[in-house]
TrEMBL record:
One Pfam family recorded for the sequence: 7tm_4
Any GO CC annotation of this UniProt entry: plasma membrane
Lineage: Eukaryota, Metazoa, Chordata, Craniata, Vertebrata
Organism name: Muntiacus muntjak (Barking deer)
Any GO MF annotation of the entry: G protein-coupled receptor activity
Subcellular location: Cell membrane
Protein family (similarity comment): Belongs to the G-protein coupled receptor 1 family.
Membrane topology, as annotated: Multi-pass membrane protein
Record flagged with keyword Membrane: yes
Superkingdom per UniProt: Eukaryota
Annotated protein name in UniProt: Olfactory receptor
Amino acid sequence: MVRRNITHVSDFILMGLTDSEEIRLVLCTLFLLIYLITVLGNVGMILIICLDSQLHTPMYFFLSHLSFLDLSYSSVITPKTLDNLLTSIKNISYTNCFTQMYCFVFLGATECFLLSSMAYDRCVAIRNPLHYPVVMSARRCCSLVFGSYLFGFTDSIVNVLCMNKLHFCDSNVIYHFFCDVPPVLALSCTDTRDIEITISIFAGSTLMVSLITISVSYVSILS
């Protein structure tokens, strides 16, 4: 039989950061200001790169995608967090919670691989400046960006398949300000040991590959 995600809860409750109304107002103002700066900065970066033909180079091509990921990454979490800080309604639907979690994993993993691609780009530019236009062709740049999104999507799919096996039948209170993997796993009334191991292996592999690639690239540059 196919195992399905059978749940007895229709929504979750995000406890947020604090219950103090004064602190919530201060945090809401601070987060809103940071979010607006993030949105304006990243949207401005993307528009400038798209409109200025002199910036149609590999480095700025990667920067535009990095800005897009940062913008999306912030937009997945911040609006709901601001809503929770402004109102007393802390509920989030089951579907929205898992959608937020999968998008968070997808964008985070994609950004790690994109940073690795950018480190490789800088390594080629500094070590082989004469061959740089040939090595970092438009096709290779697109392949690196596509590969980053593909690996990020793979990480997200692994989380989808793992989390789809969970049953929720007890508490629906998430002690966090967004739907992250660990606090959601803590609510499951089924054994999550194998799922935690699988998710940890993929998440650890993503971080290690990114860290090693970036480290090797910059060590090569310094040498």
